[in-house]
Amino acid sequence: MCGRYYFTRVSEDEKLNAVNKYMEKNYPGEYKTGEIFPGDIVPAVIDQQGKIVAVPAGFGFPGYQDNKLIINARSETAAEKKTFADSLRDRRVILPASGFYEWSHHDREKTKYLFTVDAMQTIYLCGIYKLIDGVYRFVILTRPANESMIEVHDRMPVIVGEKEVRPYLTERDAAAEILATASPMLLRKPA
Question: For residue 30, what are the CA distances in angstroms to 23, 27, 43, 53, 122?
Answer without folding.
Answer: 8, 5, 9, 15, 21
